[in-house]
From TrEMBL:
Gene: Dwil\GK18898
GO molecular function: calcium channel activity; calcium ion binding
Domain Polycystin cation channel PKD1/PKD2, chain residue ranges per copy: 371-592
GO biological process terms held by the UniProt record: detection of mechanical stimulus
Coiled-coil annotated residue ranges, if any: none
Subcellular location: Membrane
Organism: Drosophila willistoni (Fruit fly)
Protein name: Uncharacterized protein
């Protein structure tokens, strides 16, 4: 390392230290202490400014400079660099020694320039895609929280099963029980008179936002056919009588005369995308933006009067196909919203089928509520994403034909998904802010619908899943330099027709078996009730996932039929067909591996390329961490240590010769090994000569490594030294006298 470079490094290090120390001194001794909230806000502002500078202002600056240079056409003035220092013999010999040591490692196999360029591109791709994949995984992990699972599990258990003071949803067997369930489970535990904290009695940290919305769906005609039913939206008198007549003082007593109002929604793009879903029941599918709605009261007394009125005037009768009970729970300690949808399905046969659906999400994603680790990981993820997008833009900018490649198109899809993820996050924050403003200004007797922000939150999770899948596929392409990935990919390419044929046979048999099991046992087991559930259950059983299945579910059609079905599932599907599929892959894999070994050329692998290309950094790390092994004499000479090491190697080879069977080398490999050995021998001789020359000049030379010229020694002459390293000679001039 020359003196100029050393001075630059010292100047850079000193500058960084001065800046860091000055920043710390200002933050500590500025006269006031920043709170963590203020500190995160300041740090977030700095990061946003840097991102804006990198994404918007720098490109604008470069565009302006490019337009200016193209318009005025000024020629740049290049200045030659001055001489950077004085070199002597020591510098030359040390540089020559480093060059020879590197040459000792660079064999004939390392001089394949085409292969080196390929490995250069692979190393760059591994760094870009690997860093982005790791930061994406870290970003997804910090966004997840297991408390969502436990919250859904506990709330579902409290609402669906019987408790000491509440009725469970699974205990609703007829329509009159619906009123008891609403009173005991949805009114009494949330009564503000009993609980001064206005919280849920089973879990005091949870509070209901607004009131419960009851929504029922009624068909126009009770006729049951193959077509989907038409849902009623007309207005009725009490007890669902027609024709409808406007009664006096309806505006004031509408909760008595007309408690069920047709559902009115604002038609918009977001409502169409986020709210226009179907609720799948056991008998029908029910629209979410249809039906009649009624709202409970805030106090327990008013709710009891309201329920008595609904029961007296038969507002919920056997023409009610489905009754939905929607409400929102909020846990302030966990910053968690839970949208609860309870469904009681009244079938045409007088049977009530209850079900529950819960959706929990962290909607208030405030910067001040994030931990430092989450904030740091988000910053690093954005930096990795910017690096990923920058590499893609540069590649397409210099060669627009690259956009036609499938893998570059996959990179573009990954970038678009990241942009879409950012848009969903902004939309979710906007929706939450709007609803919270409504909650702040409106009365507590209204229903607050959090379906839109919660579903935006769920959509962000889906987009993250697609991002991980696509990034994994892209990383698979990068790892094609490894022989294992190459063989596996080649196996899939060669065996795709045989694998698809076997998979089709398995699928046909599985569908036939699933249909037969569903027909025989579907009326007695939910695992085989639906055709899709039956096929999935049979596939899980064949693959060994039997934790949620019971073999007794196949014996409802009789013991003999159950034994036959069980034997067919175990032996035909699980043993024969699945093993045929696995053996097909194994056979093709062995064949492709054998072909790859026959066509394999002797060349360096990617790890050897990295070891040689970045060997300097590895040696620096070993020096910094003290990993370099020094030479120890152990009271022996150099010759004795060399002889001892050679004897140990011969002894090891003799002991392992019986275990390791070496393949016979080809003629080309033998010649290559001979050339490599000969080349390394000459290189070692050159290294020893340079070392001896360097040692001689250190012992007998001056401070610049110059030796006194001797008449009888040609070895110490400067004839083999370049002109710039030779000793300066004084010019001799002769006068005319």
């Amino acid at each position: 390392m020359n003196r100029t470079r050393l001075n630059n490094i010292i100047f850079f290090v000193v500058t960084v230290i001065v800046l860091i120390v000055s920043l710390v001194m200002v933050c500590v001794f500025s006269g006031f202490e920043h709170e963590m909230k203020m500190f995160k806000t300041m740090l977030n502002t700095i990061v946003l400014i840097l991102l804006l500078q990198f994404l918007f202002f720098d490109p604008i600056k470069f565009v302006v400079l490019a337009i200016d240079a193209a318009t005025w056409g000024l020629e740049r003035q290049y200045q030659e660099k001055p001489e950077t220092g004085h070199y002597n013999h020591y510098d030359y010999l040390k540089m020559r020694l480093r060059s020879l040591r590197s040459q000792l490692k660079i064999t004939e196999e390392h001089r394949n320039e085409k292969l080196n360029q390929k490995y250069h591109i692979i190393a760059k791709d591994v760094y870009i895609y690997g860093s982005y994949f790791i930061m994406l995984l870290a970003f997804v992990l910090v966004q997840q929280d297991v408390i969502l699972y436990y919250n859904i599990r506990n709330v579902q258990r409290l609402l669906y099963e019987n408790q000491s003071s509440t009725l469970g949803l699974n205990q609703i067997y007829h329509l009159n029980t619906v009123y008891d369930y609403i009173e005991t489970t949805l009114i009494n535990p949330f009564d503000s008179n009993l609980n001064h904290h206005d919280a849920w009695e089973p879990i005091e940290q949870i509070k209901m936002l607004g009131v419960v919305r009851l929504r029922q769906v009624r068909p126009v005609d009770n006729h049951i056919g193959l077509d989907a039913p038409e849902w009623d939206v007309r207005t009725f008198l009490p007890e669902w009588q027609l024709p409808y007549q406007r009664i006096h003082y309806t505006e004031k007593f509408w909760r008595i005369y007309e408690p069920w109002q047709p559902l009115v929604h604002n038609p918009s793009l977001l409502n169409g995308l986020l709210l226009n879903f179907e609720h799948y029941g056991s008998f029908h599918t029910y629209p979410e933006l249809n039906g009649y709605v009624a709202f409970l009261k805030l106090s327990k007394k008013d709710n009891k009067i309201f329920l008595k009125h609904l029961k007296d005037y038969s507002w919920i009768n056997y023409n009610t196909s489905a009754l939905f009970m929607d409400f929102t729970l909020y846990n302030a300690d966990a910053n968690m919203f839970t949208m609860c949808t309870l469904l009681v399905e009244n079938t045409a046969f007088g049977i009530q089928i209850p079900s529950i659906k819960l959706e929990s999400a962290f909607l208030i994603a405030d910067l001040h509520q994030q931990s430092s680790l989450e904030f740091i990981i988000v910053i690093f993820y954005f930096l990795a994403l910017l690096q990923f997008m920058s590499a893609l833009v540069v590649k397409i900018w210099f060669d627009p034909r690259e956009i036609r490649k499938r893998w570059n198109q996959l990179d573009i899809i990954i970038c678009l998904l990241n942009v879409f993820l950012l848009m969903l996050t902004v939309m979710r924050s906007t929706e939450v802010d709007n609803i919270l403003n409504i909650v702040e200004k409106a009365a507590e007797t209204e229903f607050y619908d959090f379906h839109r922000p919660i579903r935006l939150f769920l959509f962000t999770l889906v987009v993250m899943g697609f991002l991980i899948s696509l990034t994994t596929i892209r990383l698979w392409k990068v790892f094609q330099f490894a022989s294992v990935f190459q063989v596996f990919t080649r196996t899939l390419y060669v065996a795709w027709s045989a694998l698809i044929s076997t998979a089709v046979i398995i699928l046909i048999f599985l569908m036939a078996f699933g249909i037969s099991v569903s027909i025989i046992n579907g009326d007695y087991s939910l695992n085989f009730y639906y055709l899709t559930n039956s096929i999935v259950s049979c596939m899980c059983f064949a693959m060994g996932f039997t934790s949620h299945l019971n073999s007794a579910d196949m014996f409802f059609g009789g013991s003999l039929v159950g034994v036959i079905l069980y034997l067919i599932l175990v032996f035909v599907l699980a043993i024969i067909l699945i093993n045929v599929f696995a053996s097909t892959i194994s056979a093709y894999f062995e064949e492709v591996d054998k072909m790859a070994k026959e066509k394999e050329k002797r060349q360096i692998n990617f790890i050897q390329f990295l070891h040689l290309e970045y060997g300097h950094w590895w040696s620096c790390c070993r020096n910094w961490f003290g990993m370099r092994k020094g030479y120890r004499r152990n009271n022996r000479t150099v010759s004795q240590n060399i002889r001892r090491e050679l004897d140990d190697q011969e002894r090891y080879e003799a002991n392992t010769r019986r275990i390791i069977i070496k393949e016979e080398l080809t003629e080309y490999e033998k010649n290559l090994n001979y050339r490599v050995s000969l080349e390394r021998s000459y290189c070692l001789v050159s290294i020893m000569r340079v070392q001896m020359n360097l040692l001689e000049r250190m012992l007998f030379g001056d401070k610049d490594g110059n030796l006194e010229p001797l008449s009888d020694s040609s070895y110490t002459s400067d004839s083999d030294i370049p002109e710039m390293y030779r000793k300066e000679k004084k010019k001799v001039t002769f006068s005319a006298n």
